[in-house]
Amino acid sequence: MNILTVTPNPSLDRTYEVPDLARGEVLRATGERVDPGGKGVNVSRAVAAAGHHTVAVMPLGGAPGALVAELLAGQGIDVAPVPVAGPTRSNIAVAEPDGTLTKINAPGPQLSAAESELLLDTVTEHSGRADWIACCGSLPRGLTPQWYADLVARAHAAGAKVALDTSGPSLIAALRERPDVVKPNAEELAQAVGRPLATIGDAVKAAEEVRELGAGTVLASLGADGQLLVGASGTYFASAPVALVRSNVGAGDASLAGFLAAGGEGPGALAAAVAHGAAAVQLPGSVMPTPADLDPAAVTVTDAVPLDRPLTEPAS
């Protein structure tokens, strides 16, 4: 399996574990991690941790960008960097013992028109050798919401399948180019259809509407409730128990990596997605799970979707 990832707005992520987050106080961290960040970057990290080949395409600039590339290379990931003038952003996350996470995400550099085009050209250059292209995360300043749509169109023209994990206007614009898989969470799904979601049945209906707008398959993360898969092969719901949530940073990205590495369709891939996501939330910072961290036997998959079950965290 060869998975190409695209991260238009990567980051250098620092995660601090603290006993308690007290506003206005001096906090002493009990743990610290520095990781390459960004949703597509995390997908590549999870794919590599699972033993598959991955190439990570992203704009990189300045000392933070150089460190991101160095850290990824150390994890066995091939990096296809697009040099940009502005420095790669640095993000901060503060994790509390109960799993509460406070994040500060920097805006990132503003890309020029030439840098935007070079990023698209680099993706196209590597598309032909990829089983899947995972396009993930927010767009940096300088890229319009149409950028992901252009990327999907180019990838399809090269014969590649595309999984898209973004939201808002960027998602709506890209749906017109019919991405093979989209991966919203409950809030992003509610935003896409313009109404709140209170039950799993509401999420199923919203996913069906997103398919009508152009998505081939919808893999929807419903937080602690589990995940939905709505596609041509049917509708499935899957969940797994989690003993302790340590950090949810990158858990959705690990889930997408598991889904794509398992073929990207059907209940088997959904089970792999849930196993990866459940393992990721029990690891510190944005550590990606290895096969040894997974517990596939704990995952339950069913086509008898509990439509009336209220969502633990309703989406508005």
Automatic annotation (TrEMBL):
Its EC number is 2.7.1.144. Residues 18-291 form the Carbohydrate kinase PfkB domain. It holds the Pfam family PfkB. The keyword Transferase applies. One of its GO terms (molecular function) is ATP binding. Coiled coil: none annotated. GO terms for biological process: carbohydrate catabolic process; small molecule metabolic process. Keywords: ATP-binding, Kinase, Nucleotide-binding, Transferase. One of its GO terms (cellular component) is cytosol. Belongs to the carbohydrate kinase PfkB family. PANTHER family: 1-PHOSPHOFRUCTOKINASE, 1-PHOSPHOFRUCTOKINASE-RELATED. This is Tagatose-6-phosphate kinase. It comes from Streptomyces hundungensis.
